[in-house]
Amino acid sequence: MTDFTYAVDAEGVATITWDVPGKSMNVMSLAGFAELDGMIDRALADAAVKGVVLTSGKTDFAGGMDLNVIARMKEEGGAEPAKAVFEGVMMMHAVLRKIERAGMDPKTLKGGKPIAAALPGTALGIGLELPLACHRIFAAENPKARIGLPEIMVGIFPGAGGTTRLVRKMGAMMAAPLLLEGKLSDPKGAKAAGVVDEVVPADELLARAKEWVLAAKEADLVKPWDQKGYKMPGGTPYHPAGFMTFVGASAMVHSKTMGVYPAAKALLSAVYEGAMVPFDTALKIEARWFTNVLMNPSSTAMIRSLFINKEALEKGALRPALPEQSVRKLGVIGAGMMGAGIAHVSASAGIQVVLIDAAQEAADRGKAHSEALLDKGIQRRKVTAEKKAEVLARITATTDYAALAGCDLIVEAVFEDPKVKAEVTARVEAAVGPDCIFATNTSTLPISGLAKASQRPEQFIGIHFFSPVDKMMLVEIIRGKGTGDRAVAKALDFVRQIRKTPIVVNDARFFYANRCIIPYINEGIRMVAEGVEPVLVENAAKLVGMPLGPLQLVDETSIDLGVKIAKATRAAMGDAYPDGAVDPVLFAMADQGRLGKKANAGFYTYDAAGKRQGLWDGLEGLWPVADAQPELTEVQHRLLFVQGLEAVRALEEGVLMDIREGDVGAILGWGFAPWSGGPFSWLDMIGAARAVELCDGLAARHGGRFAAPKLLREMADKGESFYSRFAPQSRAA
Ligand code: NAD
């Protein structure tokens, strides 16, 4: 079994075809690299070969590097992991540089053989770095294809020459969105940006690439940076224009990343330092920074959570072993904010949807939500008019429960009221067949309680979406006491169909995500009540990598929702209610009509258009700022530990069944400092012993909610980490 095949045609053009067996998308492995290297050697050595076309046997060119390999490289380095990574990366550079030089004499730049890349579809990561080393890139007209370097999204940066080549090809300014934001484009966009050279009809792809190879002149093979007198577009750091770019880029990156993402900083360093030296030295610098990033615990944790484990969960790592349960016809009950969103993402994924509300007008409004989203997609050229028509045709908006006949899954998203939900459950069960699975999208009501209204509790489950449904990638699947495996498998298959990431948790108050996020918001509010500068609270959160400060977050989710949850929780918990100190602040804000963003007034002020301005200056009148302010790290520890410890308790209590879900769910569900890889990865980075020490201090100063859970103490005693104890298979990242 080989990843590449080699064939030479009658005209002397060698075609190297990348086609990894058993995979729908090519990914690069070290063995693949070695194979490719051998074939390039063969083509260069064979006098009968005039040139090479590098292409793919699949619909797409390649999805990137197999990040499991990158993760393993380090471990295989034994006592010298950095050396192993650096050498591995330099080996890749050597292969790509060989392609670029193609056998030419480095002095005269003569004697090389043309090598063209022919991309039938998507080309990401190494799947673009490899073409960038070729002499000409042809992409097929394929609007579905995505071309770019998304490495930064998982905490690394293009480390196989992509960074150095792209910057030298288009200049630092033009390369910035591609490298720093991982911006992807379709082939036309990639051509307009200067990333690919030609976009050609799909059925002419190979012929056009071959034609170019046969006609190419020696000068066509020499990259600008290998020519005498090369000047980097836009200028190097000591050029007046380049100077402005680099100063601006540094500030921009810092403002976006708050300095917590090592990959962005390392990338910028590689570009800056690389711009001032010859190409081959720049590659070496790139490799050193790349190694530096791979050795950083943040990047390794990000790769583990945001790539390896996220993908494992999406592929159903924890799915009960049952036959395929894909959804064919979905019933959504309640066409409000959530129901409409669920109908939209499902219909967009090709599922027939019956969208029911109490009144026809409400059901139609739900469908109109989908139309509005599709129109936005058309405006952004992400959706075609045909796609819009297809999606809308799949949604039947009605009040008639008889239309549910034939549904194999129901998602209920009516008011958060057990009585209403019970009524709906009974009506639905009377209308659907006996095999249909019933899911509730409740955010606060225990699933096992709601299942009492069902005749078939083993077919009753929670499928908890986050708002806005079309944007939020996490779906929390909640297993009630009586929920059976088929319901779990069905929910997982559904989530896969709509291309989101699932976690499966057991039933408990607030499940997992809300259980952790509510204490985060409350900790922020507590600090305001204590006299901590609100701006310190917000900035501390952002500087530790939370996308929103707790006060901004409660403004977004609405303060009256907070009040409602506080009241319901107090009623349910009685004396054990832990958040008495929070309520006076929340209730006072609500009493003043400061309900958050939707009311254009909350902890923040908003302009008439709803744009957030500064923190509300009336806060100080209500909760005077204390003379002595805490250290930044104290505030940050409070904000992170209050979430992290809740995650540990969820694990301890068996609500969370797998730490990988805990980490992935935390980042996708509520944006837990993504640089950390999630709460368990974060605690592992600190180490259990140090975490317990910090908790002891926080508990002494701020109360029992910071008391280290028994599990954490035990791990500290035994010198364990979460990943060594609970997921040894994914420890190696
Ligand atoms: P919403 O008020 O926007 O929508 C509820 C819809 O249900 C309304 O259109 C209403 O007319 C309809 N409805 C009420 N009773 C009905 C009945 N008997 N039959 C048919 N339709 C009926 O509420 P929402 O924000 O979409 O929330 C819906 C559910 O999703 C709730 O259980 C909520 O807790 C949960 N949820 C909400 C969020 C969120 O951020 N809003 C997030 C996750 C889960």
UniProtKB/TrEMBL annotation:
Keywords: Fatty acid metabolism, Lipid degradation, Lipid metabolism, Lyase, Multifunctional enzyme, NAD, Oxidoreductase. Residues 329-507 form the 3-hydroxyacyl-CoA dehydrogenase NAD binding domain. It catalyses: a (3S)-3-hydroxyacyl-CoA + NAD(+) = a 3-oxoacyl-CoA + NADH + H(+). Pfam families: 3HCDH, 3HCDH_N, ECH_1. In the central section; belongs to the 3-hydroxyacyl-CoA dehydrogenase family. The keyword NAD applies. One of its GO terms (biological process) is fatty acid beta-oxidation. This is 3-hydroxyacyl-CoA dehydrogenase. InterPro entries: 3-OHacyl-CoA_DH_NAD-bd, 3HC_DH_C, 6-PGluconate_DH-like_C_sf, ClpP/crotonase-like_dom_sf, Enoyl-CoA_hydra/iso, FA_oxidation_alpha_subunit, NAD(P)-bd_dom_sf. Pathway: Lipid metabolism; fatty acid beta-oxidation. The keyword Oxidoreductase applies. Residues 511-606 form the 3-hydroxyacyl-CoA dehydrogenase C-terminal domain. Transmembrane segments: none annotated. GO terms for molecular function: enoyl-CoA hydratase activity; long-chain (3S)-3-hydroxyacyl-CoA dehydrogenase (NAD+) activity; NAD+ binding.
